[in-house]
Amino acid sequence: MNIHSENNINHLKDSQLLSRLLSYAKPYWRMILLCIMLAFLSVVSDLARPYIMKIAIDGHINGLHKPMAMADALQADRLKREYGETVVWNGKAYARLDPGTTLPEGLGKAQIVRAGGEEWLVPDWLPAQASVEGANILAAAGGNGGVIVDGKTYPAVPLDPAALDAFRKQDYLGFAKLGALFLLAVAGAALLNYYQSNLLQFTGQTIIFNIRQQLFTHLSRMSMSYFDRNPVGRLVVRVTQDTEALNQLYSQVVVNLVKDMIVLIGIIVIMLQMNVKLALLSFAVLPFLAGLTFWYRSVIREAQRVSRVILSRLNSFLAENLSGIRITQLFIREERQREQFDAHNTEYYRAGMRGTVINSIFQPAIGFLGNIAIALLLWYGGASVIDGGITFGIVYAFTHYVRQFFQPLMSLAEKYNQIQTAMVGAERIFETLDEQPAIVDPVKPRHLPERVRGEIAFENVWFAYAGEDWVLKDVSFTILPGQTVAFVGATGAGKSSIIQLINRFYDIQKGSIKLDGVDIRDIPLDELRRYISIVQQDVFLFTGDIASNIRLNNAGITDAEVVQAAKMVHIDEYIRTLPDGYGTLLGERGINLSLGQRQLLSFARAIAFEPQILILDEATSNIDTETELVVQDALNNISAGRTTLIIAHRLSTIQHADQIIVMHKGKVREIGSHYQLLAQRGYYYRLYELQYKEQKPLPKAR
Ligand SMILES: Nc1ncnc2c1ncn2[C@@H]1O[C@H](COP(=O)(O)OP(=O)(O)OP(=O)(O)O)[C@@H](O)[C@H]1O
Question: Boundaries of each ABC transporter domain copy (predicted)?
Answer without folding.
Answer: 456-690
